[in-house]
Sequence to fold (208 residues):
Amino acid sequence: RIRADRGNIDGAQSAFRSATQADPNNSYGWSKLGETVFVKAQQSGSKPLFDEALTYYKKARGIFDYNVEAWAGEGNVYFSYASRFKDFTFIPLAEQAYKNSFNADINYWPARLNYAKILYGQGPSKFSEAIKQFNHIIGRLYPENPEARYLAGKIYQAQGNLGAAYQLYSSAIQLGLPGSQLTDCQSQLQFVTQELQKQQYGGQQQPQ
Fold:
C-alpha cells in the first residue's frame, strides 16, 4: 500500500492524485491525497496548502461519511488554523471533526487523542471530559501511548491527585515520551515525588 509519509511524499501525492482522477468516487484516495498535501503544508506553513488539504478531506468524507481518516484530517487542518494562524474560531470545528471521526470508528484512537488534547488546552473547565478521553485511550485503545499518559498526569496533578500523576508520569517516561514533553514530564515527576514524600512525613503540600 502506498504510504503518505515524509519519505516519499511527492511520489505518494502523484499516485493518489492519479487514483482520484481514475476514480473520482475513491474516498480513500481523496483522503490520502489530502494527507500528502497536509504534510507539505506542515513543512512549509503555507495557508493555501492547508486550504487545499481541507478541500480533499471534505471531498473524501462527502463520498463516504464513515471515512475516519478524512474526518481526522479535517480536524487537523482546523486545529492548524487555530495553532499556526491564531484563528481560534476553528477550535469548535476541529472538536466536531475529531468526534465525527471516532464516532465513525470508536477504536480510532488518533482522533480521540487530538480531541482530548484540544479539551485539555482549554483549561480546567474541560478537564473532566479530557480525562475521560485520555483514560479511554489508556485503558482500552492504546495503553502504550505515552502522550495520553503524560497529559492525563498533568490533569490529575492539577486536581491534586498526586498518586495518579506519579504513576502516569512514570509510565509515560518508560514508554518513550519524546522531546519537550519528556523534559517537562521529568520535571513534574520530580516535583510530585517531593510532594508525596512531604505528605508521607507529615509535611504540608506546597503549591507549584
About this structure: The first helix runs from residue 9 to 22.
